[in-house]
Write a structure and sequence with these properties.
heterodimer; A: alpha/beta; Rossmann fold; 2 domains; eight-stranded mixed β-sheet; four-stranded antiparallel β-sheet; globular; B: alpha/beta; 10 helices; 30% helix; ABC_transp_ATP-bind (chain B)
Chain lengths: 328, 331
């Protein structure tokens, strides 16, 4: 039996905006991640996936308010932790890698110093052996010439190498959970393959759970065990990876899958895109936020936002599945 | 036999690098380093490659937005590289470009009507302001926008709509060739599909020819008839799309294809992981520029640059493995 590592309960996140007042970015978000599992969080820009990740780490900006919700990590609600306690968890038990490694590495410090700092801070190394340990970690993430790279600055490395350094830093303390926010989006596809491969190897070795945030459905299909689809700050569908790709249920998930050209398919018919655009946050006050782009929208969709319905092992936020399953 | 709409021969675009005080000898970045291909009327040629392979520079060199260093570009039977500015401007109404970033390529201080109207008046299309306005309204309809958008500024549109404006500007002057440089990579997937369909529709209704440049192999596969794969300033493989995907020949193409994640969780690809990064174009490897990452590398690859081999009709590959002279080295 796998045990639950992280449980998000009922996240509500909103931002204050001078013009529009309070804008709700994430609503009623609940999910869990088991030990050693990879959960994919997929959605288009503005759906709230990155804000979710940042709020797990309690790194959201000052104008954001985290009004409600629990983040239960290893049985404890870390939202109640003091900032100091939180610091001992960040980079240690939960670590994070970001899309653009150049902006998340400090440009004025050498690679060795930056990784050494993490090790030092969390008591994995002291002043004398931190460089030695850093080299060891860099080798583990497949960096050639690790002995000389520790003396390099981030700008001297390529994008793929920088992302490896980020991963090295994130994995330095053998975290239980790695949050990867679009880790390969800025990389070329052959470099992406290297990085995904590396993440798989490290996960197997350390049994790290991964929360993989991306807009790329191919990456999700390849990496994730379970998938959560977000739209307009809400989970619209959740299922294991096979079910999601073989039997998607939510009209948005179906639309997304139909929008992507499939490289393995011989079928070259036209794509069937989703009509319209993602609405700006705060515009839709009631009803299902997807209704304006949905072919199946009916009266009820305008009146009330559907709850998550359970349909066998799948969760779907859509009135189409009202009678078949019970409300969660 | 029909003449191709565009044929490019041995195109080279080199950027000089500033000499340092004690560093003698000129030095240049060979962004495009000897590319030859042709595009037939009505077809879509996809150009795929990773960042820094020179695909955008190539697109711009064909339009002479960047002056090519060497080579010939023949468009509709006329040599482009020797045209003077007046004739070049005339020619540009026949060859247009759509850029990746619709935020950066539209003037934020001009309304949509003014942006499109300028394209028309530059090329003397439409006699009066009234006539031009009518044309602009028509253009907006063609790209799926409405005539009510005419007075709005670029920032009032979403990314997808902005790209539609970029496309409208390109088709405004009735071009026969459009070079689309990563036109959908800044867009979300649901919107990306809308824009791809628009490209397809316009191709059919206006009889356009495209050079479609992108890094996303699935997108290139979806839109193209033929595909050229670029690596470090060269086209390493050029082929009909179906043949290319059934049996990629060049080791780089093989690796590139295997690296694309599949949408089917049941397909576990036999991935060819390329080691290392793309070498710098200012100091490309000797011989075959891919040899530093190639799993089939032999001694000859380090010293001799591969020739272009036509393995079957219309199918070209730059690799010693397919060259009769060196074939035996690889057995």
């Amino acid at each position: 039996m796998t045990s639950e590592l992280l449980k998000i309960e009922n996240f509500q996140i909103s931002f204050k905006d001078d013009e529009a007042g309070t804008i709700s970015a994430v609503k009623d978000l609940s999910f869990h991640i088991n030990e050693g599992e990879t959960v994919g969080l997929v959605g288009e820009s503005g759906c709230g996936k990155s804000v979710t990740a940042l709020s797990i780490m309690r790194l959201i900006e000052k104008n954001a308010s985290f009004t409600e919700g629990k983040t239960v990590f290893e049985g404890e609600d870390i939202n109640l932790f003091s900032e100091k306690e939180m610091q001992s968890i960040r980079g240690n038990k939960i670590s994070m890698i970001f899309q653009e490694p150049m902006t998340s590495l400090n440009p004025v410090h050498k690679i060795g110093k930056q990784i050494g700092e993490v090790l030092h801070l969390h008591g994995f190394a002291n002043k004398t052996n931190s460089i030695e340990k850093t080299i060891e970690i860099l080798k583990k993430v497949g960096i050639p010439r690790a002995e000389s790279i520790v003396n390099d600055y981030p700008h001297q490395l390529s994008g793929g190498m920088r992302q490896r350094v980020m991963i090295a830093m994130a994995m330095a303390c053998n975290p239980k959970l790695l949050i990867a926010d679009e880790p390969t989006t800025a990389l070329d596809v052959t470099i992406q393959a290297q990085i995904l491969d590396l993440m798989n190897i490290l996960q197997e070795e350390y049994n790290t759970a991964i929360l993989l945030i991306t807009h790329d459905l191919g990456v999700i299909s390849e990496m994730a065990d379970r998938v959560i689809v977000m739209y307009y700050g809400q989970i619209v569908e959740q299922a294991d990876v096979r079910t999601l790709f073989k039997q998607p249920k939510h009209p948005y998930t179906i639309g997304l899958l139909n929008s992507v050209p499939n490289i393995d398919s011989e079928n070259e018919s036209r794509l069937t895109p989703i009509d319209g655009n993602v609405p700006n946050l705060g515009v839709i006050k009631s009803g299902c936020p997807f209704r304006a782009r949905c072919q199946h929208a009916h009266a009820k969709c305008h009146e009330e936002n559907p709850p998550l319905f359970k349909h066998e092992s799948q969760y779907v936020r859509c009135w189409l599945y009202d009678e078949q399953g019970g409300i969660v | 036999m029909n003449q191709p709409l565009l044929s490019v021969k041995d195109l080279k675009t080199h950027f000089p690098v500033k000499k340092k005080l004690f560093n003698k000898g000129s030095h240049s970045i060979r962004a495009v380093d000897g590319i030859s291909f042709h595009v037939n009327k009505g077809e879509t040629l996809g150009i795929v490659g990773e960042s820094g392979c020179g695909k955008s520079t190539m697109g711009r060199s064909i339009l002479r937005l960047i002056e090519p260093t060497e080579g010939s570009i023949v468009f509709e039977g006329r040599e482009v590289t020797t045209l003077d500015q007046t004739n070049l401007r005339k020619l540009r109404s026949k060859m247009q470009i759509v850029f990746q970033d619709p935020y950066a390529s539209l003037n934020p201080k001009m309304t949509v009507g003014a942006i499109l109207g300028e394209a028309l008046s530059t090329h003397q299309l439409g006699q009066s302001a009234k006539e031009r306005k009518k044309k602009v309204e028509n253009l907006l309809l063609k790209v799926g926008l409405s005539h009510t958008h005419i007075g709005r500024y670029p920032h009032e549109f979403s990314g997808g709509q902005r790209q539609r404006i970029g496309i409208a500007r390109a088709i405004a002057v009735n071009p026969s060739l459009i070079i689309a440089d990563e036109p959908v990579s800044a867009l979300d997937v649901s919107v990306q599909a809308q824009v791809l369909n628009l490209f397809q529709d316009l191709k059919e209704t206006l009889g356009l020819t495209y050079i479609f440049i992108a890094h996303d192999l699935s997108v290139v596969k979806h839109v193209s008839d033929r595909i050229g794969v670029m690596y470090l300033g060269k086209i390493v493989e050029l082929s009909d799309k179906r043949q290319l995907f059934q049996k990629p020949l060049h080791p780089y193409t093989q690796a590139l294809m295997s690296a694309v994640p599949s949408l089917d969780p049941d397909i576990k690809k036999n991935r060819i992981i390329l080691t290392g990064d793309v070498p710098s174009a200012s100091n490309p490897p000797t011989g075959c520029s891919f040899h530093t990452r190639c799993r089939f590398k032999k001694n000859v690859c380090e010293s001799v640059a591969p020739r272009e081999i036509e393995v079957s009709s219309g199918r070209f590959v730059n690799c010693h493995m397919y060259d009769n002279e060196y074939k035996r080295d690889f057995n």
